[in-house]
Amino acid sequence: CYFDNDESRVTQELVTKCNNVCRSRYCCFDSYRLESSCLATVGENECELYSPCEQMITKDGGVVKTFIELDLQEFDDDSVVPGESNSDELIEKEVFDACYFDNDESRVTQELVTKCNNVCRSRYCCFDSYRLESSCRATVGENECELFALCEQMITDDGGVVKDFIELDLKEFDDDGVGESNSDELTPEELIEKEVFDACYFGNDESRVTQELVTKCNKVCRSRLCCFDSYILESSCRATVGEDECELFALCEQMITKDGGVVKDFIELDLKEFDDDSPGESNSDELTPEELIEKEVFDACYFDNDESRVTQELVTKCNNVCRSRLCCFDSYRLESSCRAAVGEDECELFALCEQMITKDGGVVKDFIELDLQEFDNDSPDESTLIEKEVFDACYFDNDESRVTQELVTKCNNVCRSRLCCFDSYILESSCRAAVGEDECELFALCEQMITKDGGVVKTFIELDLKEFDDDSPGESTPEQLIEKEVFDACYFDNDESRVTQELVTKCNN
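The structure assignment produced for this chain is given below.
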């Protein structure tokens, strides 16, 4: 506690140490109002031993917590205030505010660990116990390193950095009250805080912003995004849920976009948090090969817990992307494992693909099968069956070879009664209001069968030209050539004027 009249010795370290020593005897002093006096109980002589501690009592009877407060109290000047002339003091205060928990185990939270790591990251190299970098003490200087003295508590026994409040708690308080093996003994609040941290934390490490992190973080945070004013998709639940509950989900705010929605993609989160141009749709050439793979798998396969997103299109795309790496998974029995050959890192990029493996080790082929596997329903509802029927009849993706007359015929049969859902269809008045938005959405693929003039595609050639915008269907098979010859000779659609003797002759031939 002693600093004499030397203002330079009033540091955060001194305040911390003095409070630790004096805490149990502040009750000796009449000026201390947070407890009743213990002078009679403890005795005059005992209290005299702690006489320097009285300097730590504030004018209102509380306890000095920061060196700035003590400086102003003892030296009564304005020399220590935030400003350029006091950069050392400001650093020391910043470290203290971020990292100090004294002997109060309840203050060891994930928020403290996160803030302390952010403040201390550049000066861990000051400490001999830190092994992830060579020492910077000689370069930085003793004085600078001393300002970060509290940071040493964040260094693990093996020379790494504490990442988790449970890890820090066990390190500093050395009990079994918290920890992975004793998760049942964590308070409900600590379990929530840990779950949010494990799912969402990436610090300033851009390499940790992955699709897996975005997926996990969204799952954990979904129910509490309403805590934040920046979220506009729901009204605020802060008053209902409570400040304390919302604070446990503080990390979740990083998942809210600038326009108040939710981040869905690791590229979106990366650009939002790190503010560079390296990733993004418009800069896909600058993504690493690993990031491109991870994004491709996510775009094809991700449906979260949203059953409505489990469609035949998703199953098809996901299988196309995942086919070559299903062998990464022990649950897949149609090939021997390729994990050792491909490597753990490569297989991890395809982690989402495991959802496509059936319980018997095969591959999910049907969105109904995936739906039953993931959501454990007894049977698909009627809307799911309709969506499947439309998909099976009409879907060809970007594969021109799948545009056949058979597809056109089947798709028209399935879609005929719902072409009226689309504004582009002019042969009937719209039925969207009568049928309903949800019903019409099930037939979304059918819109490809409407011609530019509002009629209905009747032949595969017409559909091919409409969708692929070239002069002729690609390399034709013999069957397609026959089909085209028949079409050219015989087709008149609903145009009576095209029924001529020439058409009859050619068609008969």
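Interim note for the steering committee: The chain is about 45% helix and 0% strand. Confidence is low (pLDDT under 50) at residues 78-85, 176-183, 277-284.
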